[in-house]
Amino acid sequence: MDEIALTAGALYVIVLLRAGGTFAVGWLAGAGARRSRFAGRISSARFQRAERAIQRWGAPVVAVSFLTVGFQTAANFLAGSMRMPLPRYLPALFVGGAAWALVYATAGLGVLEVLGRLFAERTAFGVAAVAALLLAVCGVVLYRRRRASPPSGDTVAEEA
Length: 160
Prior knowledge:
Elements: H1 2-34, H2 39-42, H3 45-65, H4 72-81, H5 86-121, H6 123-148
């Protein structure tokens, strides 16, 4: 239990620094954009409505973003760039960060323990599992790249 508490505490500090830093960078980027040539676009009525909505209702989105993969950084940056007030942002950061730290401390340590036992007791299974995982990741990457690139036989010649 002490191992989980120590890991969760360390992860909590890390997520507070990382997400809070992302929020701060977003805040600075938003301030810079408001002084740039984009200031006219940012001052539009539509943008200001979106900004007010995020300032008011964005805290639950920020808190839940910690339980997603890939959306957390964007949510924190957007909250900063749209000037979410700190009294709304900080509780979302503390709650979402705590949830993130607990999930990763418990599930993460569990996975590491299982992998450690697998390699210690059945090294061949451990190596095979890692190899299968790497092959699966490589297969997914290749599949996505092939679907994203245009077919080589379907190019149309441009007219001069």
